[in-house]
Amino acid sequence: MVKSVFVERDVLRLARNTRCPFLVSLFCAFQTEHHAFLAMEFAAGGSLGSLLNTGALTQESTLFYAACITSGIKFLHDRGIIHRDIKPDNVVIDSTGYAQLADFGLCKTGVDHTSEIDEPCGDLSYNAPEILRGERYNRTVDWWSLGITIYEMAVAKLPFTGKTQEEIFNNIFYSEPDYPSDLDSSTISIIEALLDKDPRFRLGSEIDDGEEVQRFRYFRSIDWKALWNKQLKAPFIPSQPTTTDGDEGVKVTEYRWRLDQDVHETFRNFDELPEENF
């Protein structure tokens, strides 16, 4: 738990320091006697998961958000970081309408295209088959999760379902998704490429994994430089909050025992001051 808090802070700080438009950024980090706090930039559009509660997205919206998520994954992978928990609930829409990755507590750092990991993590519905089997896995698990997310954006449901966990797992291992008859072929093609059950052949398995995914024909209309510079039109611009929004404040549980000195020592260098003009 403590490790994940520091990983979250470090990735948020990386996003801030590099001005990556596809990751939620850190505002500041601080602590009290019993609590550690991470203050992040405000996501005016809420989560992608909340947006999907209203139904499937248009082809254009799905493509735009998929491009943003792809850029965020590429940014992390290029810096030796696997997210390991890509899903709509961990994607937020910022004030400009662009999608950003969030929730970095499960990130694995210090990895490259040859690294293999054997620790389970993430949401089972978005886990790649190799994770569910307890096998060693690599960064291609993020691309599998992107495939699940694109399907969910386009169809408004998960591609692999079942009445029991065993049935869900069997569908993930042995079945292929069903596609609506009106779903365009380009969207189907990238979902199929990302949901290859063999990570060796999955889209994103090459050394330049992020660029490999960006080159896929599904994204042929995306100007990646313009996307990075936020020059492309977003599907919608969230309404801006009023000055009274959020006045209810944050509820904090009060503890009546003292924490071990070792815990305080661990968090000695946790604090992070906000940048000027953030």
UniProtKB/TrEMBL annotation:
Keywords: ATP-binding, Kinase, Nucleotide-binding, Serine/threonine-protein kinase, Transferase. InterPro entries: AGC-kinase_C (IPR000961), Kinase-like_dom_sf (IPR011009), Prot_kinase_dom (IPR000719), Ser/Thr_kinase_AS (IPR008271). Residues 220-278 form the AGC-kinase C-terminal domain. It holds the Pfam family Pkinase. Gene3D superfamilies: Phosphorylase Kinase, domain 1 (3.30.200.20), Transferase(Phosphotransferase) domain 1 (1.10.510.10). One of its GO terms (biological process) is intracellular signal transduction. GO terms for molecular function: ATP binding; protein serine/threonine kinase activity. Residues 1-219 form the Protein kinase domain. PROSITE patterns: AGC_KINASE_CTER, PROTEIN_KINASE_DOM, PROTEIN_KINASE_ST. Coiled coil: none annotated. The keyword Metal-binding does not apply. The keyword Chaperone does not apply. This is Serine/threonine-protein kinase N2-like. It comes from Xenopus laevis (African clawed frog).
